[in-house]
Amino acid sequence: MIEDDDAQRFVASFALKKAGHDVDEAADGPQGVARARASRPDVIVCDVMMPGMTGYEVVAALRADAELATVPMILLTAMSDRKHMRQGMTAGADDYLTKPYRPDELCEAINAVLARRQCSRKRS
Prior knowledge:
The protein has a three-stranded parallel beta sheet, sandwiched between helices. The chain has a single domain, classed as Response regulator (Rossmann fold). About 50% of the residues lie in helices and about 10% in strands. It has about 120 residues and is mainly alpha-helical. The protein is globular and about 35 Å long. Keywords: DNA-binding, Phosphoprotein, Transcription, Transcription regulation, Two-component regulatory system. This is Response regulator.
């Protein structure tokens, strides 16, 4: 979970833990990229608008890393217009949720990208 807003990060992490997920947290993009490289997570949830490194830049950095290129990524943002959604998907995000979102929506999105990844692995 890469989110610069402490309250948003707490709520999302709490919901994910309650749903049975292990959650590693980062407060900004550079920290999130470093933690992803160290822990190789199953999925990455990342805010778009953060200081230092945007979510789009995080996606680009991780898609360029051979070991993390296929990790599903979900972007979170308060920007709800189609232009920003398209930018996130073009950058390589697997899903895009607009804030405010319900915790169950985040859990559903994570379950969906993990299920797609598992299906893809079975075909390989």
